[in-house]
Amino acid sequence: MSIESFSPLPLNMFGTWITLLDPSDVPPGMSPSLGDVEFFPGGVRTRPGLMAQYGVLGGAPKVNGLKTYVTTNLVQRLLALDSLGNLYKETSPGVLSLAASVVVPNMFFSSTTHFGREYMAFSDGSLGQDLPRQYDDSNLDRVTQIGPAEGPHVADSTAAGSISPGAHQCAVVFVTRQGYWTAPSPPISWTAAGSFKVNVTNIPTGPSNVVQRLLTFTAAGGASFYHVTASMVVNDNTTTSVTVDFSDTILLSGVSMDYLFGQIELPEQLGVIDYAERLFWWGERAHMDNWRNPTFDGGWDPSGNGRPLGWQLDPTFGLGGSREPSDVVWGDAYRITADGATAVRGLISQNAITDIGGDPLCVNNTDYSVRARVKRSTNLTAGTLRVNAFSPTQGQIGTGLAVTAVQATASYQEFTADLFGPQTSLPNDLTLRVYADGTPSPSGSWFLVDNIEVFETSASQNASLVRASATEQPESYDGVSGIMNIALNDGQAIRAAFTLRNGLYFVKERSTYVTATDGVNEPALWAVEEVSNKVGTPSVHGIGFGEEWVVIAGRSGLYLFDGSVPIKVSQEIQPTWDSINWQAGQNLWVQVDTQRKKILVGVPTGSATQPNQILVLDYSEGFQDPLAALPSSLERSRKWVPWLIAANSCGLIERSTGIAEVFLGSNNSTGKIYAPIEGQYSDDGAPINSYYTTAYLAATGLSGRNLFGFLTGYVQGAGSLALSAFSPGDVTQTHLGSWTLASPISHDMEQFTNVLGERVAYQFGTNTVGSWFSLTKLVPWAKPDPFAIVRGTN
Question: In angstroms, rounded to a whole number, what is the distance separating the alpha carbons of residues 664 and 730?
Fold first, then answer.
């Protein structure tokens, strides 16, 4: 066949994927269908293949979190969380070691590096589900914890001293290895005779992370608490008795401790960010925070009778309860040991009507629920662990939590149940009880219970609340001044946050707000302004951080935001964006690779509930709308492409080379962490099905049928490049053969085609291990059909 009568239809630009338009209407230079390629100036090529960066994680888990943590020595470590609840750290390049195995399984994490630690929030993607934690390269501690649940005993010493006569109060504060000062114990008081020292005994001891206890006192007749550093520090976690001397003058010149009484223990959180030398947390799972020692971290009766402080030990059924210091959710847990004969074991209780300060706990006409983490010994075969409400005068109120030996397992699980429904008149003697009954057996077997949380059933989460720490005190959270509410009760939850220039932004599901420090007030008094009432995200990882801008992945599209008006940058693939399974939208993630100028959005599509592909936006030549850029500046517009990579997590991980690399956490239960590597032409041994389809082309200036007789192109690569042609509406391809690829190549490839059609699109691609292509020019040759330029009929 001679091509002298054919006209060339050169394609020198290979642009973005367009699904907004019908495939037959996609303009030349763009593509109605492509996959697993990447763009470069003037061409398109096979994307980098995936290579495992570490050994396989044990237990065939998914990899649910990836993050770079920078230690106080400026060592950059990868942290990885798997779906089994294991946290790993990179100890040397390419080597992961287990850091901790205490996280609830199937959690995702959001974190921030600050103050030399990694602060982590663990969630199911929508709501906090495990304790907020901090990692200092050695210890994975919880962020905040309760203080002593009871005060010490105090009395005048027989030794002469300087204490002023009159009524004084004393309280105890735990100090953790992270330097955190907990809320003080409930104060106790004594009346000093004057001119004596004071004996302080039964000083509570805390969990294993407590390294000091602080004593704090009031002056005679005073209400404010002070601490004198030199004489009121117990420098261990074992001493239970000290003698202290002070004058009111010395005491009042000490450190005020009043602010500690307003501190709360941080509930489970969805996300965390640092700003203005503070930490901000959101997405909290609510619970009542004025119960006494429901986590069993507030100390134990010094007599050794097994009573956690703040609880009362039942004189008849209290036997069998004891402290568990190691097999815990955090801190300490409560162990109930069976004797194989007694029907009820380890019964403890506390007031359920008012707290230690006389403030209300349970009130009338309110439904309450309870959560608890429970496990059992492998040999426990009988018995039920119970948490319920009981009145000595009226009996049990409601059903409460009941976990049988069959339901519990050898690992901690969280159980939730209705504590009791709305009551018109709660008895004044109502108590909260914990115990095991049903004759737990055999002797020596046991239940463990930890982290009990009581909450109003209708208020199980604080969707619009943000907790802010004190300045440079990342574990100090005031229950009033540290609270911000972002558009309270608007039917949306806060999902993500970011900082941009001087602003702190909170992103709800369909809206965005900004605040900023005023340099004077606590966060509760900072002004909050609406940025957008349309743009939001369903995911804690739905924000990607660029160069003085962010992108926000929401239900209606991907938006670019630089501090002004959010700009949509995904309109050209809107039907694809709509196909995301938004019921699982909390699991999507966004990552910006600023070095390679790519935005990666991991999304669940179709019926998938975890990300099963990555939508990649190449912005190396700008963010300009490709449809608005036609025809002169098409090459300088954004370009979309789908990568068929399933990954539950993505991180921009700092490497020893000084370059940040994109790492992907697999979700196919291989336990692998991957990185796309240039020059890698398979996905961990599997072929990459990379292909590009041109727009539908016709001979210039002609209508009717065309004969596409020849095809040339400049393409490099390896393996075999498959060539196909489509007409509009075709459900099958017309195979045109293949080109054997080489790199470099000194000439254009050629192919006779002999395809008839009004318009024809060409598809080319590779799909075998080791194959790849790089295309910079494609020229179909066409002319009017020499036999019948029109069909003459439909």
Answer: 36
How distant, in Å, are the alpha carbons of 85, 351, 362, 420, 453 from that of 426?
Answer: 41, 12, 8, 11, 20
Going from the C-alpha of 670 to that of each of 91, 431, 608, 665, 675, the distances in angstroms are: 21, 49, 18, 10, 14
Q: Which residues contact 594 (CB under 8 A, 6 or more apart)?
A: 546, 547, 660
**Does residue 640 contact residue 615 with C-beta atoms inside 8 Å?**
yes
Segment 434-443, tens digit of pLDDT:
999 999 999 9
Using left for φ > 0, alpha for ψ between -120 and 50, and beta otherwise, residue 781 falls in beta
Determine contact, residues 121/283, Cβ cutoff 8 Å: yes
Gap between the Cα atoms of 549 and 562, Å rounded:
4
Residue 628's H or E segment, with its range, is helix 626-629
CB count within 10 Å of CB 596 equals 17
Q: What is the DSSP string of 555-575?
A: TTEEEEESSSS-EE--GGGHH
- pLDDT confidence of 242, banded at 50, 70, 90? very high
* % of the chain beyond a pLDDT of 70: 98
Contact 595, 15 (CB under 8 A): no
Helices assigned H by DSSP within 127-239: none
pTM above 0.85? Answer: yes
For the chain, the straight-line distance linking the first and the last C-alpha, in angstroms and rounded, comes to 30
Angle at 28 between CA 22 and CA 29, to 5 degrees: 115
Q: Name the amino acid, one letter, at 407.
A: Q
CA dist 463 and 95 (Å) reads 39
**Per-residue pLDDT reduced to its tens digit, 287-298:** 999 999 999 999
Q: Residue 466: what residue type?
A: V
CA 116 from centre of chain? 20
Give the tokens for residue 168: 């004084």
Residue 228 phi/psi, 5-degree rounding, is -105, 115
DSSP assignment string, 651-712 = EEEE-TTS-EEEEEEE-SSS--EEEEETT--SBTTBPP-EEEEPPPB--TT--S-EEEEEEE
How many C-beta atoms lie closer than 10 Å to residue 740's C-beta?
10
Contact criterion met (CB below 8 Å) for 198 and 225: no
